[in-house]
Design brief:
The protein contains two helices and no strands. By secondary structure, the protein is mainly alpha-helical.
Length: 76
């Protein structure tokens, strides 16, 4: 449920829908270039979202560990 409140998630969904629309319009007009561009953009938007989520998660883990080390040093 938390992901449904994420702006990154909704931007990714919008990018995917636009890319799918591009692919469909390419198919409807029998333009292979447009179809391929739409397909590539669907994959790219998913990959960018996954990368951003992984980056945010890794930053959170790094900051948590850094704060834990500072707390350990203060406790000594």
């Amino acid at each position: 449920m938390e992901k449904l409140k994420s702006r990154k998630f909704w931007i990714c969904v919008a990018a995917m829908l636009a890319s799918i629309g591009t692919s469909i319009s390419g198919l409807a007009t029998k333009n292979e270039t447009i179809t391929v561009i739409g397909s590539v953009c669907v994959i790219a938007s998913s990959a960018i979202y996954a990368f951003c989520e992984a980056w945010v998660d890794s930053c959170a883990i790094y900051n948590r560990e850094e704060n834990k080390e500072e707390d350990d040093e203060d406790g000594e």
